[in-house]
Amino acid sequence: MTTKPFKIGNIELDNRVVVAPMAGISNSAFRLTVKEFGAGLVYAEMISDKGIIQRNRNTMNLLHIDEREYPLALQIFGGEKETLVEAAQYVDQQTNADMIDINMGCPVNKIIKCEAGAKWLLNPDKIYEMVSAVTEAVEKPVSVKMRIGWDEEHIFAVENALAAEKAGASAIAMHGRTRVQMYEGKANWDVLRQVSEKITIPFIGNGDVATPMDAKRMLEETGVDAVMIGRAALGNPWMIYQTVRYLETGEFVEEPSPIEKIDVCLLHFNRLMALKGERVAVREMRKHTAWYLKGIKGSGPIRSAVNETETKEQLTNLLQGFQQELAERQQTTI
Ligand SMILES: Cc1cc2nc3c(=O)[nH]c(=O)nc-3n(C[C@H](O)[C@H](O)[C@H](O)COP(=O)(O)O)c2cc1C
Prior knowledge:
EC number: 1.3.1.-
CATH topology of the largest domain: TIM Barrel
Largest sheet: 8 strands, parallel, barrel
Function: Catalyzes the synthesis of 5,6-dihydrouridine (D), a modified base found in the D-loop of most tRNAs, via the reduction of the C5-C6 double bond in target uridines.
Shape: globular
Bound molecules: flavin mononucleotide
Active site: 106 (proton donor)
Binding site for FMN: 21-23, 75, 145, 175, 230-231
Structural class: alpha/beta
Strand content: 5-15%
Domain DUS-like FMN-binding: 19-324
CATH class of the largest domain: Alpha Beta
Number of strands: 11
Number of domains: 2
Radius of gyration: 20 Å
Order of helices and strands: EEEHEEHHEHEHHEHEHEHEHHHHH
Number of helices: 14
């Protein structure tokens, strides 16, 4: 059951492994990389409705989608109906995203203050009103991504999900934490189960899927239709492939060798260069490189040195030099 393709609106997904939206990370360089490792659906990072309406240059750059990423959900956030609808219409008509996702989970103060993100979780009526306004105004399927609630005392997960469903949402993704939890503590899968028992549209569970085994367990224990993976894919995109294969066959595929991992890191870097240019790409790639190198024996000094790199040449040389060192190490241990 868990391995069958499934549909969101008119979009056919090849499998039930979805990569989460992550601000500052989920640009097309990252998405394309996880897509190549088999993701059934990728989400773009959250984009401000007002930024779209004002055609802010940085915001418009976030709308870049490579056609190899399909299917893709583009996520917008906002606190007012008019601007949210206008931005959704822009995404609907002017971008090649397959799906429009509304952010109802972002916990940070800057967003909450604008009545956006997780703020809606306190008010199922507002969810109904806002989601209805968007679904009525666009052609593309609309999904929402929410948290289970605001805090322990205000977990309206079932009411909120039903409100979104009634308002015409084609899918819901839910992170099993409250707003107050931020990223701390454990994701509450019991609440995910309660929601999956109540809604009929595709339901994507999220939170604390760190391994392929976790993904299987979430599908089995909560009855969600698909799993969404965020942090576990950072510097670890092959984890997506391992999860897809594990769900399909029960077989655990070995992870790539350290040298192969660095090849993927370099590929990601080159994509980021093409997308953002050298200065920004090198800076952004520092954190990714540290994630890619995590767990590789002897990578400590390289991970520190990465933070000092400023140019493509420096970063590439550092990584290729380390590959060389790893290859030599292999030779001496054979
Ligand atoms: C760095 C970072 C950025 C995030 N940005 C977004 C975002 O733009 N939109 C969103 O809906 N969730 C965002 N999230 C939340 C993730 O999509 C996901 O719900 C959360 O990380 C829990 O899943 P995980 O345990 O698999 O990481 C972000 C999370 C992280 C760690």
